[in-house]
Design brief:
Helix 3 crosses helix 4 (107-120). The protein is 27% helix and 32% strand. It is of the alpha+beta class. The protein has helices at 5-8, 10-13, 41-58, 107-120, 151-164, and strands at 20-35, 78-83, 94-101, 130-145, 167-169, 174-178, 191-200.
Length: 201
């Protein structure tokens, strides 16, 4: 059976517009860092690098290489960890964008993905991409529906939930998981998961 993250990992990818407390396990990612306005071409290029690597893994069996433990799956959504800086000036934003990888991915699979991506679509930015594992652990998440610029309304709901449940943020970053394709969906209908890593006060 094909693994579809929307169906099989609902706890992580199907939150409601009401904040909730979850535990996020260790996950594997292709990642790339950047700085500046996410509306700029540079941001789009970095996204393209991640998808070239993600699909290189997904399509490996068609290239004659079947990783041990490989299974059919839907490519995971784009995510981003943001250090907003001055929220009124998007050019000050620092970010790490990433795409999660299935558990069967190993260093060998990673190296093969870079090799495939470099042959299919060479790009200097490939040298800035990297692979790693992240364990967020205890987190508060909420579904934000609407324009990215309206996210502060959802952050306020998260802060209120945290205060009511004796929780506090770990660090000043937040995570976003993009459930919608911003190129195809109206801005007021975009669906984005927002997350803070938290701890008990």
């Amino acid at each position: 059976m094909k693994h579809e993250w929307k169906k099989h990992e609902k706890g992580l990818y199907s939150p409601k517009e009401t904040p909730q407390l979850i535990s996020v396990p260790k996950q594997k990612f292709f990642m790339i860092k950047g700085k500046g306005n996410p509306n700029d071409e540079d941001f789009s290029e970095r996204i393209g690098i991640l998808y070239s690597l993600a699909y290189a893994v997904r399509m490996m069996p068609k290239k004659g290489f079947v990783p041990e433990g490989y299974f059919e799956y839907t490519v995971y959504p784009l995510e981003g960890v943001w250090e907003a800086g001055n929220t009124s000036d998007k050019f000050t934003f620092s970010y790490t964008i990433m795409i999660r990888q299935p558990d069967f991915v190993t260093e060998e699979v990673v190296n093969k993905a870079f090799e495939i991506a470099n042959v299919k679509k060479p790009n200097p930015l490939l040298k800035e991409a990297y692979y790693g594992e992240i364990e967020e652990g205890l987190s508060v998440q909420v579904l934000h529906i609407g324009d990215y610029d309206d996210e502060p309304k959802s952050f306020e709901k998260m802060i209120k939930f945290m205060n009511e449940n004796n929780l506090e943020k770990i660090g000043e970053t937040h995570r976003e998981i993009y459930l919608s394709d911003a190129r195809k969906v109206e801005r007021n209908k975009l669906k984005t998961i927002l997350r803070y890593m938290v701890k008990q006060k």
